[in-house]
Design brief:
This protein is of the alpha+beta class. About 40% of the residues lie in helices and about 15% in strands. Strands 2-7-6-5-4 form a five-stranded mixed β-sheet. Strand 14 and strand 15 form a beta hairpin. Helix 4 runs antiparallel to helix 5 and helix 5 runs antiparallel to helix 7. The protein is elongated.
């Protein structure tokens, strides 16, 4: 039986219609399936209603078309045509033509599995149709409310510091199934929800290949669908044997061009509904003309409602923003800059390719205890407006153009350097690290490294460097002591905040500072000594 052409309005459960006491409908034949739904009501007294049905209707008839002496053959043909047209159920009205439902009609409905409802004399067919539309309006309102709430929850999840997994979690919760983000190399980057059976999971992986762009010379784009698949994906071209895809072979000298890649595809495997959405510009348009980043959103659910596609499309749009590259031209320029650096070009020569002469170095650390993964680092770069992201252990480093403001981000602690040109990026990296340490110690979401003239600038740089090396020589061979002393002085001698900034115990800080005082032979409680040491540490 072909899929019924049904309107986009949510269907009505047949059980809800039977529960209406004002109608008094009674099921007298057919399966007692709570999943039976009705997409509309239609009255017809035609002996063959097939040409007038779209599918999914509750067909209402008073039996005017039944000839006298009609036998089982007539009713069998009548019911079979309703089933062939995709009718959801048959409502038979009592009086004025028939005082009871013909027994042969009951038997035919039982044999063909068509629900048969008895409509009492007091209930008009227009009343049944009105009840159907009332229930459909209620379902439509509930569906719109569900979609609106889902959109709000997805947008809230996308605003979190590590948004990809929360978005997938909300999507899986809203559709009552499983959501997965596929990387361009087909691996599962993140998942959420109830995992589907292995066969459906593999079929979803295959379906993701349908919407992922490929070079046509690489061969067939998808694997064979699993047994039981309806293969509703739109990427197959031409007929093929069951379980195989036909691939046309180009003739010698023929120039073959790739067909447009669809941006969405769906399938059903053993009752599990599958869908794949390509992430990138133009997601959900169905044209395949946008920039496809290679990331694919996959969903699997035991049921599919009209609002599920809308909810999934919203999630796909948000994930496209979180995972996609900013612009193809920008990505090409970044790749060109990397190649030139690897081939020996100095940083100042490739900086114009990155989009600016002066940049901020940002060090970021998530507020939680877990180290940021590549997905969280990518989302951070998107929030800061830069694709130049380096997830290095517990800290993410980002290069941000100087003309873009760096603002606090929920869930992250940021240390920002002053704007620097390429020759000074190494120093800016150090300043950003120190700013992050102070931000964590003082528990502020963002701290910027100061860049104002200091008293030490009155001393010639060469003399200042020589004095700093001489003063700090006793601890120069112990970086842990130097870093601890610098952090301790920057935090005004606070043991607790220094311990937080260095991620060590406060007793360790005390021991190191005492060791510095002994090696330097200095009284670190003397403000003049502290000032002189701070000037020296600024030169290192």
């Amino acid at each position: 039986m072909p899929d019924p052409m049904v309107p986009p309005t949510p269907p009505v459960s047949l059980e809800a219609l039977l529960a209406r006491a004002d109608l008094g409908l009674r099921r007298i034949a057919g399966p007692d399936d709570p999943g039976t739904v009705v997409h509309g009501a239609h009255t017809s007294e035609m002996a063959d209603p097939y040409p007038y049905l779209l599918g999914g209707e509750l067909l209402l008839s008073a039996g005017v078309h039944i000839p006298e002496g009609a036998g089982a053959g007539y009713f069998d043909a009548y019911v079979s045509r309703i089933v062939a047209a995709g009718g959801a159920a048959l409502g038979f009205g009592l009086a004025p033509v028939h005082k009871a439902v013909p027994a042969a009609l009951v038997e035919a409905c039982e044999m063909h599995g068509l629900p048969l409802l008895e409509v009492p004399p007091r209930t008009t067919f227009s009343g049944v149709a009105r009840a159907v539309w009332q229930l459909m309006a209620q379902a439509r309102t509930a569906e719109l409310r569900r979609v609106t709430e889902a959109q709000q929850s997805l947008a809230t999840a996308a605003a979190r510091p590590d948004p990809l997994r929360p978005v997938l979690h909300q999507l899986a919760q809203r559709i009552g199934g499983w959501a997965v983000l596929f990387a361009p190399d087909t691996t599962e980057l993140a998942t959420a929800g109830t995992t589907p059976p292995p066969e459906a999971r593999q079929s979803l992986t295959n379906l993701a290949e349908v919407v992922r762009p490929h070079d046509v010379s690489a061969g067939s784009r998808t694997a064979a669908p699993a047994a039981g698949s309806r293969a509703a994906g739109a990427a197959r071209v031409g007929a093929a044997a069951p379980g195989k895809h036909r691939q046309a072979e180009p003739t010698p000298g023929e120039h073959r061009q790739a067909a447009p890649t669809p941006t969405t595809a769906s399938d059903t495997v053993n009752g599990t509904h599958l869908a794949a959405y390509a992430l990138g510009t133009g997601t959900g348009t169905g044209t395949g003309t946008g920039t496809n980043t290679g990331f694919v959103l996959g969903i699997a659910s035991p049921h599919r409602t009209p609002g599920d596609h809308t909810i999934a499309s919203v999630a796909a749009a948000l994930l496209s923003l979180l995972t996609g590259r900013r612009q193809t031209g920008t990505a090409t320029a970044h790749a060109s800059a990397l190649v030139r650096l690897l081939l020996g070009a100095p940083p100042e020569d490739v900086t114009p390719l990155l989009g600016g002469e002066r940049w901020h170095v940002v060090h970021a650390r998530p507020d939680g205890r877990t180290a940021p993964d590549p997905l969280a680092a990518s989302a951070l770069g998107t929030a800061l407006g830069s694709a130049l992201v380096d997830p290095a252990g517990e800290v993410v480093r980002v290069l941000v153009p100087a003309d873009r403001p760096v603002e606090p981000l929920p869930g992250w602690t940021l240390g920002v350097s002053t704007a620097a040109s390429p020759p000074d990026w190494a120093d800016a990296d150090t300043r950003a690290a120190r700013a992050l340490a102070r931000a964590r110690a003082t528990r502020v979401p963002l701290l910027r490294h100061g860049d104002r003239p200091a008293l030490a600038d009155l001393v010639p740089p060469h003399d200042a460097d020589a004095h700093a090396r001489s003063l700090l020589a006793p601890i120069a061979a112990a970086p842990a002591l130097t870093d601890t002393l610098r952090t301790w002085l920057s935090l005004h001698g606070s043991w607790d905040r220094t311990a937080v900034a260095l991620s060590v115990h406060r007793n360790t800080v005390r021991q190191r500072i005492a060791r510095c005082a002994a090696l330097l032979e200095a009284d670190l409680d003397d403000p003049d000594v502290r000032m002189e040491l701070w000037f020296a540490l600024r030169r290192t």
